[in-house]
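Hey, I was hoping to borrow your eyes for a little while. No rush at all, and the record is pasted right below.
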Amino acid sequence: MFFVWLSGAPASAAVLVPEDEIEKILSSNYQGLENFSVVLNFEDKDLSLRIWKQGPYWRQEWVALGNGNNEVAGVAVGEKKTVLSSKGIDSVYPPLLSLLFRDFFWWKNQGVDSTLQSYHFFHGRPALSVGVTAFDDYSPSLWLDNEDDVIIRMILSDNDIFLDLSWFEYKNIGNYKLPHRLIITSGQLEFSCTIEWRDINSPYDPSLFSPQALDESFSGISLEPQEVVQSFYQAQKVLF
């Protein structure tokens, strides 16, 4: 536990936590976690997003669920911020879960001001809010659970556009504290999904991330993703 919670108050001014202490918390949570496979299951949408990451490489595969069949509705591979190839999706961004592994220098570049800190309860959890002093301030901020030292909320914004990410139900997987539920809010858009971690630090065949292999696999195939897929990426424009 890296700061003292002032009990009994819904919000209060924080004794500033140094940036290096915040960075220590962020880096220690996921140090050594390079590869993973995860599935986001979107509630009430018969849709899932399967993600593979290996070092700087990633693959995102949208699967439509229904009638006992799982059909690929859109797929993309990339390296870091760059999309190398995509099928069925016009606008694609890197996996949203990669935000869990950013260092504090990255958050500062997103506009999080470490000189603004406050304490709030968020869904019943005491948290240090770095970047804001008011609960309803949608300026860029990072909310850290007081007891478990994990991220429970991220707000990124650009002028009147904001992306609000809430991370819940942390469980220990392979000695890492990982969230198992995510709520994404941006304007009128809201997505609620469960997070199923399938592999931690397992090696994958490099062809899984190959744009050439992707092009060959889906050559001549027309993919038709649901409108929610485009809305999902639309909400992330503030990041890129």
In short: The helical segments are 19-30, 104-109, 211-217, 227-234. The longest strand covers residues 189-200. The mean pLDDT is 90.
